[in-house]
Design goal:
Chain lengths: ~240, ~260
């Protein structure tokens, strides 16, 4: 006897649905394998995994949260870019507009700011977790090095974003920060010049930091993350007791 | 191979059903292991891992949204190059460097030490190659004791050194650098670079000697002590710089600070 088709059955059985989703509902092991393997976002994962790797108290989700905050930062950052103008004359004014007149502008800015702080903390703690569980040991040596580069990239992303509001906090924090960088032996003055594009922080600094912040460094971070995630799988998945 | 020829359900030849199926697949030319074959200690990523990730993401997003609704990001008055705030501070995650800067040469504190630290950290897996202790927090109970000892040691030494130098005179290398400069005619870099480097190396050396004497550590355990020293230094100096440095970078209690930093 044929079961009567519900509306849901008709939708999920339609040729349009089947063209998008190649597998059935993931309540069988076969479909659970297919949903991971056939989805571009999920196929970052293997189909099956060691049981210990799903324990939250092992990773505290720190690496995942770092990545998640990167995504939040990308989305809120794009929205802020619609309104923000990286000009010495207009930057501060557009910040006030984002906070005062743009719908949800203040919320977007707050989420961007707090995620940025959170990402620095999460990436640093993630490094601690990986270290204390000995997860850098062979065959994961190279991925540890990639991780250190990601830490540096995170610092630079946060640092370049710090100047953009163009308020007293931003201006003087970057002044102090670039003086620290400028104190490098031998190449110090050149480093400072390269960073600021001038003898003091001004329009050329703002456009440099803006470009680094919204496109160059995110691309570097995305590139390094691609390698980082790929190598987790190629080096045998997340570490665990032998 | 007699069993294979038997009818399903009539398997009495000592080979279980699962093995029989696999043998059958071999005969039929199929792969032995299918992607859905699970070992004892394995789970399917969907749902076991995906659900953990989803819950983590949702909980975190809820916290982030709540925080962003409740607390506004700071926006002070417009940047003014002619009006230097007192104190001027770097972003909080660099305040540990700024704190070191108060005590020694700027190039040493701001560039050389952090570069050496990051380089050393990147080199860890090429020094400690033993697979022992992977997946266990702190490797062993001895390792965890070393973490605790290094944490206490680093915190006490750092806070002690900051307070001591504040009492003697900031940037004088506990009076040694200024003494060499004032009475022996030594150039400023002798104190700010040479003596400062010796003090930093001395503190690291003291940690190593202490851990070696008490615990007779393996390479991994010694690296645990050093990494903990770095890890704690990052947060302790950052905490001092964020919460205890007021105008003219004077030490003061957090509630006396004139400006809130984010």
């Amino acid at each position: 006897m044929r079961r009567e088709q519900s509306l849901a059955d008709r939708i999920t059985g339609s040729s349009v649905w089947r063209s998008v989703v190649r597998h059935g509902y993931p309540d069988t092991q076969r479909n659970q394998a297919l949903i991971i393997a056939s989805n571009v976002f999920l196929h970052i994962h293997p189909v099956k995994i060691k049981r210990y790797a799903t324990k939250v108290t092992y990773t505290f989700c720190l690496g995942g949260l770092s990545f998640f905050m990167f995504l939040v930062l990308t989305m809120t950052g794009v929205l802020l870019m619609f309104y923000y103008i990286p000009s010495e004359d207009q930057a501060y004014q557009t910040m006030q507009e984002i906070e005062g007149t743009v719908t949800f502008g203040q919320l977007m800015r707050n989420m961007h700011r707090w995620s940025a702080q959170g990402m620095v903390i999460a990436v640093f703690l993630h490094m601690g977790r990986v270290f204390y569980t000995g997860s850098y040991k062979p065959p994961r040596e190279f991925n540890w090095v990639i991780g250190v580069l990601l830490l540096v990239t995170t610092f630079l992303l946060s640092f370049t974003g710090y100047l953009l509001p163009w308020d007293q906090l931003a201006f003087w924090a970057i002044t102090v920060g670039s003086e620290i960088g400028g104190a490098a032996p031998i190449v110090g003055p050149q480093v400072r010049q390269l960073l600021l594009g001038d003898f003091q922080i001004g329009q050329s600094t703002l456009i440099r930091f803006y470009t680094l912040h919204v496109i160059f460094l995110p691309l570097i971070a995305a590139f390094l993350m691609a390698v980082h995630f790929w190598r987790i799988r190629k080096d045998g998945g997340i570490s665990g007791p032998l | 191979m007699a069993e294979i020829a038997q009818q399903p359900g009539a398997n009495t030849g000592g080979i279980d059903e699962q093995k029989r199926q696999k043998l059958l697949e071999l005969v039929r030319g199929r792969a032995l292991a299918r992607p859905t074959d699970l070992a004892e200690d394995e789970v399917m990523v969907w749902p076991s891992l995906v659900v953990v990730e989803a819950v983590c993401a949702v909980v975190f997003l809820a916290i982030l949204t709540a925080l962003s609704v409740l607390v506004n990001a700071p926006l002070l008055e417009r940047a003014n190059p002619n009006q230097t705030p007192n104190p001027s501070k770097a972003p909080w995650y660099f305040l540990n460097l700024q704190e070191m800067l108060l005590h020694m040469d700027a190039g040493l504190a701001g560039v050389i030490i952090p570069t050496l630290a990051l380089g050393g950290i990147a080199a860890i897996p090429y020094i400690d190659r033993s697979p022992l202790g992977v997946g266990i927090l702190g490797t062993s109970s001895k390792g965890r004791k070393i973490i605790a000892l290094a944490t206490v040691f680093t915190t006490v030494v750092l806070v002690g050194m900051v307070l001591l130098e504040e009492a003697i005179g900031r940037g004088t290398q506990f009076g040694m650098g200024s003494w060499l400069m004032d009475t022996q005619g030594a150039p400023a870099w002798v104190g700010s670079i040479v003596i400062s480097s010796l003090i930093v190396l001395g503190a690291i050396f003291a940690l190593v000697v202490m851990v070696k004497t008490i615990y007779r550590p393996t390479t991994r355990e010694l690296i645990i002590a050093l990494f903990t020293g770095f890890f704690i230094t990052y947060w302790v100096l950052g905490f001092i710089g964020t919460s205890f440095r007021g105008p003219e970078q004077q030490l003061m209690m957090p509630w006396d600070l004139p400006l809130v930093h984010h």
